[in-house]
Design goal:
By secondary structure, the protein is an alpha+beta fold. Helices cover 25% and strands 31% of the residues. The chain contains 5 helices and 16 strands. The chain has a 6-stranded mixed beta sheet. The protein has a 3-stranded antiparallel beta sheet with strand order 3-4-5, with no helix packed on it. Strands 6-14-13 form a 3-stranded antiparallel beta sheet, covered by helices on one side. A hairpin with a 2-residue loop joins strand 1 and strand 2. Helix 1 packs parallel to helix 2. The radius of gyration is 22 Å and the shape is globular. The N terminus is likely disordered.
């Protein structure tokens, strides 16, 4: 992000980024590198494509001890992710010019712009997780405060059974507000999670060795958002491994400039992005109804 420089008014990049933009991103984001998304993604020069190398399973042979080794080709598969879409915000602070604006006046608008693009990006990421992941079905029934903890533990078991050759299991569960409300009345969750009292988008606790992440937007996703389901009702939680989902961002641009159309100052933001489900078996979601299209 470039330094904001307008005539005699110069705003320090670090002050704005560290005090307003980055804290806002951290508070509302559910796409957390190393927690819910794969951290090993590289951006190509120019920023139009991201890529990562997915580790393939090696070939194992069995036979008489001391036999000649048999070479097999395995290793890595390169996966490319096109970054050709973005989220934008373009808002006006009315009846103001940049030369008269102090940072503390602009800050609420920057925070709102940051929140808006982060929430849009996060919701789209959840949609892609669901569309490219695996439905856990409705066999568990509607969870209650007495069953929710056990329901998620059961899904951890189901995840491990669906991934018998992987030593690394699930590491996160993304929950809706309704699911978190049930968890917060669950004795097991309150006893095992030191951060269970927090309430914001982001990390809110631990459960069965998983990081619990709250998304206030999860339950709003339905069949109109996803291509793979004709009916999708009340997504309760997504359980998965960070290595199974890539969500690279090229850059986060924020700027303030005098409007050419209005008497006021424009606050603008853009976040180009791309998403990729790398392994459908390592992202499982539970919804009351999930009917494949």
């Amino acid at each position: 992000m470039a330094q904001l420089d307008y005539s005699s008014n110069v705003w320090d990049t670090d002050q704005i980024a560290l005090n307003y933009i980055y804290p806002t991103l951290e508070e509302v984001s559910v796409l957390l590198a190393g927690v819910t998304t794969n951290p090993d993604v590289s951006i190509e020069v120019g920023g139009s494509t991201a890529y990562l190398y997915k580790l393939d399973d090696p070939a194992v042979t069995e036979g008489v001890a001391g036999r000649a080794l048999t070479s097999a080709t395995s290793g890595n598969t390169k996966i490319d992710i096109i970054l050709n879409r973005s989220f934008q915000v373009d808002e006006v602070i009315p009846n103001a010019v940049t030369e008269t604006l102090a940072v503390d006046v602009v800050a609420p608008y920057l925070v709102n712009a940051t929140s808006a693009v982060a929430n849009a990006h996060g919701r789209k990421g959840l949609v892609e997780m669901i569309d490219g992941g695996t439905s856990a079905g409705a066999a568990l029934g509607a969870p209650t405060k007495a069953t929710i903890y056990g329901d998620i533990i059961t899904e951890i078991k189901n995840f491990d059974e669906a991934n018998p050759n992987r030593s690394t299991g699930a590491n996160y569960v993304i929950v809706s507000p309704a699911t978190l409300a049930l968890l917060r009345t669950s004795t097991e969750f309150l006893q095992t999670s030191a951060t269970a009292g927090l309430l914001r988008d982001g990390i809110v606790g631990q459960l069965g060795g998983l990081t619990v992440v709250l998304s206030k937007q999860l339950a709003t996703i339905d069949e109109d958002d996803v291509a793979g389901y004709s009916t999708l009702t009340n997504v309760r939680f997504i359980l998965g491994a960070a290595d199974a989902f890539a969500a690279p961002i090229v850059f986060r641009n924020f700027r303030v400039k005098d409007s050419e159309l209005y008497f006021g100052v424009k606050v603008q933001a853009e976040v180009p992005y791309g998403f990729k489900v790398l392994d459908a078996n390592r992202i499982r979601f539970y919804a009351d109804v999930a009917t494949a299209a």
